[in-house]
Design a protein that fits this description.
Strand content: 5-15%
Largest sheet: 3 strands, antiparallel
Low-confidence stretches: none
Structural class: mainly alpha
Oligomer: single chain
Shape: elongated
Mean pLDDT: 95
Number of strands: 3
Helix content: 55-70%
Number of helices: 9
Distance between the termini: 31 Å
Length: 244
């Protein structure tokens, strides 16, 4: 479990909208086993969010998808741009608080030699991976929320993992199959056998889906998702330390 807090400020004529946005966000949070509380301050609300970190991360999508249309249909203030800015301010403050707790969880996990339970990853100075990492994070959120099929998720995960394996290796060892890359990385990183196994299953599912037209079952991915995320965090941790 984790938690963070932030202050959501509103202009006087946006107070009613702000209060209704908070109520709606609170109901959305309950769907993800999160507890979102708020109390009035002199110029807005003090907001706290508690629960599993991955749930906090995947909540971003429904907040964006539902709060903006809600505000656009709200009667006050009359200026629709002000209503949109109020939603944007709330979401920006939520994301800022989420970023802080995500970094704290990662720091603690690194200090203890473990893997954070997080859908966000830290590629460090390996900035050539940044776009792939952000796309994969988005895929995790979409898959979690049922907006991305298991087959599509496997393809995204395979692409990002293959690039990560190559980044962990010297340039002269970055050629070869996914299995060969994994073997080379396991030899230099002391990759746990359970992590190797989950990455092999990822490779096999992607192969069956892409080359044999076999549908990937969502429940199979869900059974492996925590181990897969831990394996990727371990490899990103190795990559950050090896590039210092």
């Amino acid at each position: 479990m984790a938690g963070f807090d932030f202050t959501f400020r509103c202009k006087r004529d946006c107070i009613l909208l702000g209060r209704n946005l908070l109520r709606r966000a609170q109901r959305l949070a309950k769907n993800f086993d999160l507890e979102l509380k708020y109390k009035s301050t002199s110029n807005g609300w003090y907001v706290t969010v508690d629960g599993p970190l991955p749930s906090m991360q995947v909540l971003i999508q429904p907040l964006v998808v539902q709060l903006f249309p809600f505000a656009e249909g709200f009667p006050n203030p009359k200026d629709i741009h002000r209503r949109r800015r109020t939603v944007k301010r709330f979401i920006n403050e939520y994301i800022k608080g989420l970023k802080g707790i995500t970094e704290l969880v990662e720091y603690v996990a690194d200090s203890l030699g473990g893997a954070p339970n997080s859908y966000f990853f830290n590629e460090g100075t390996a900035t050539h991976l940044s776009s792939l990492v952000r796309e994969f994070e988005q895929s995790l959120i979409l898959f979690h929320n049922g907006w991305l099929s298991a087959s599509q998720f496997v393809e995204e995960a395979h692409t990002m993992t293959e690039a990560l394996l190559k980044a962990c290796l010297p340039k002269n060892k970055r050629r070869g199959s996914f299995a060969k890359l994994l073997e080379e990385v396991a030899n230099i990183t002391a990759l746990d056998p359970s992590y190797q196994e989950v990455l092999i299953r990822l490779k096999e599912r992607r192969k069956m889906a892409k080359h044999h037209g076999q549908r990937v079952k969502r429940e199979d991915i869900l059974s492996d998702i925590n181990e897969l995320i831990s394996a990727l965090h371990y490899l990103f941790g190795y990559l950050r330390k090896s590039r210092i």
